[in-house]
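Let us practice reading a record.
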Amino acid sequence: MQVKITERDLLLIVDVQNDFCSSGALAVPHGDEVVSAINRLSRLFQHVVLTQDWHPRGHLSFASSHPGAEAFQVVDVAYGRQTLWPDHCVQQSYGAEFHPALETAKAELILRKGFRMEIDSYSAFRENDGAARTGFAGYLREREIERVFLAGLAYDYCVRFSAVDARSEGFSAVVIEDACRGIGLEGPAENGSMEETRREFAERGVSHIQAEWIG
């Protein structure tokens, strides 16, 4: 199967930042492995956008902001359930910078998310309260983009939420699986974060392909 890229397609590179790569504060297993594949892919697209986690110190999503809480614990906040994370991608920190080997010069836009103190933001389209929007859908429509291809970190969180929201906004969403890596939080049998992601992709019409299919 070969996928032809057109001017109506956009590559969304999700959160390939130091804190999500090896030795980072919230390292995604084997996260560094996506960089070379993404660099090759970005050369094939006319339109490329990067997302960047960009948290203020003391962000609501940090376990350290909740006395007695632990990282990866799920708590109730004003907008619903929120997973708590180690402090990561703090504004102006090394951890928030893109991986040094990631080619970023072709990016038309760097979309920063998670910068509001009281709301986390996984998706490129909207924040975790489900109401606050980033304006990205309008950006895509203005440029007459029809398909959004996604790669990056992490498959089961920010890639997942961005892909599902792309579909809800009326765009085709295609996840390039081998150009992503997941956190893989465990849950009850057949209910871990990777399994939930695959199930939701199937339900929402999110496609998945391999990087080698794009030429």
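A brief commentary: The chain has a mean pLDDT of 95.
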